[in-house]
Amino acid sequence: MNTFLVIDIGTSSMRGILFDIRGKRLFKDQLTYQPEYFKDGGVLQDAQVFYDHCLNINKKCAEYAKSNGYKIVAISMTSQRSSLIPAKNGQPTDKAIMWQDTRVNKLVKVYSAYNEFFVKRSGSRLNAVYLGAKISWLKHNKPDVYDQSDKMFNIPSYLIYHMTGEASTDTTYGSRTNLMNIKTLDWDTELLKILDINRDKLPKIVKPGEVCGKITKDYAKLTGLPEGTPLVSAGGDQQCAAMGEGLLNNDAVSINTGTGGYIIKNIDELPEVLTDHLIYNCSSVPNKYILEIDLLACSSILNWFIKNFYGDLKGNYDQVNEDLKSCYDQNINVTALPYPKGKSVNTNDTRIRAAFTNIGLSTTKPDMLYGLMTSLFVEINDGIDILRSYGPISSVIIGGGLTNSKIMNQMQADAYNLRIHKSPVTESTAIGALISVLVNQGVYPTFEDAYRNVVHGESESYSPNKDNVELFMELNERKQELYSALKGTKAGYYKVDKNQFKEDDKVEKQSHHKITI
């Protein structure tokens, strides 16, 4: 029987899953890892761990396939999008700089005068999460590492090189670098010049869903994978997750409520004018784009509240759900700002922090919880409102940790005033990567056909409660008033000293040609 191997690389683990053509999971192997977090904002990982884990996962999958008479006819890879591995001849020259690393923030501020240009060319203002800023930071702070490295890989391109001998990345990752022209889909000479990055240190760019190489003879000997097996780059994890959840047309929105939040809408063509209220990325569907809005914190907000106000629930969230139900459909006075790491919808305010107001002697813990989660969902709706200017939105597909709560799903429907659907897929990123390789290999003619054949089960649906919609609109007005009152003040900003605002003014006035990072 023909099978397809999906390699899914996350922030804390890597998985290999064998599927048949109907999406049945035949075998799964998963290995974990843990980045190192440092006080200076550095988040690092031994790059060799990614190679070793991928090798061992491929070995186990190949062994299982062989022992059960299965043939692995193609491999599909999806990954977290923006971690940096500098390498020479495929060997890491330093530890991987993970996507969460914040040491690059100062450099991003220095180049802030170029933000409009970056938006026009790359689809996003210079972003601390993206690869381009990390490469520039490496050149300024570790010039010896930069000089001795012949390639700047992300995690999937590093593994693709070892598996196939090809140095390549696809456009979904390219659109998360601030170095690829979002319209020409090639490395942009002027963006490279601004950040002073050598073009020859970057891998070639291919389309997502394309074969980026074939398993080499040496790697086949190491793993047992058949030599010459095609390897497809399916695209970044969020793009594949949206596809796996069924975001295949342009009138729906995908919302992933993980540690951070992601709001995604498909479009066929880029608008003529690009704004900094959105991130313009390439879709996992070739020749299409996605509009993306990222929230700096999402389910992590709930985790913080539970840890500090409920304690260790040992995985049982019944009380949390009951407390939310007790407040549902009530006019709760508590107003909250859901910004423990800053506000990213409609602005880029990384210093504002969360807040509660309207707390009186009658305020209860459930009131505060309900106010906080409501503020998060209406904040997401502010993002959906931005996407509404790019075409009709008739439904929302939800995924991520918060969707395990039925009451929170209903709250989302009320906040967005849209019918929402929870996909039956539990491994949406891997399913998206599977759909990609099945279409590439001609098993199914279209992505829609592949989705219908590999996704089974009924989705859960929630319709907005019209009475509660009005209450949520009022809560959103109060949230916006509170943010307006606190932004730019010491009362609303985190760790503000008396010189911070003056220092930020100086940064804006610095020469952008003579910089010290």
From TrEMBL:
<dbReference type="InterPro" id="IPR018484">
    <property type="entry name" value="FGGY_N"/>
</dbReference>
<feature type="domain" description="Carbohydrate kinase FGGY C-terminal">
    <location>
        <begin position="256"/>
        <end position="435"/>
    </location>
</feature>
<protein>
    <recommendedName>
        <fullName>Xylulokinase</fullName>
    </recommendedName>
</protein>
<dbReference type="Pfam" id="PF02782">
    <property type="entry name" value="FGGY_C"/>
</dbReference>
<keyword id="KW-0418">Kinase</keyword>
<dbReference type="GO" id="GO:0005975">
    <property type="term" value="P:carbohydrate metabolic process"/>
</dbReference>
<keyword id="KW-0808">Transferase</keyword>
<dbReference type="GO" id="GO:0016301">
    <property type="term" value="F:kinase activity"/>
</dbReference>
<dbReference type="InterPro" id="IPR000577">
    <property type="entry name" value="Carb_kinase_FGGY"/>
</dbReference>
<dbReference type="InterPro" id="IPR043129">
    <property type="entry name" value="ATPase_NBD"/>
</dbReference>
<feature type="domain" description="Carbohydrate kinase FGGY N-terminal">
    <location>
        <begin position="4"/>
        <end position="244"/>
    </location>
</feature>
<dbReference type="Pfam" id="PF00370">
    <property type="entry name" value="FGGY_N"/>
</dbReference>
<dbReference type="InterPro" id="IPR018485">
    <property type="entry name" value="FGGY_C"/>
</dbReference>
<dbReference type="InterPro" id="IPR050406">
    <property type="entry name" value="FGGY_Carb_Kinase"/>
</dbReference>
<comment type="similarity">
    <text>Belongs to the FGGY kinase family.</text>
</comment>
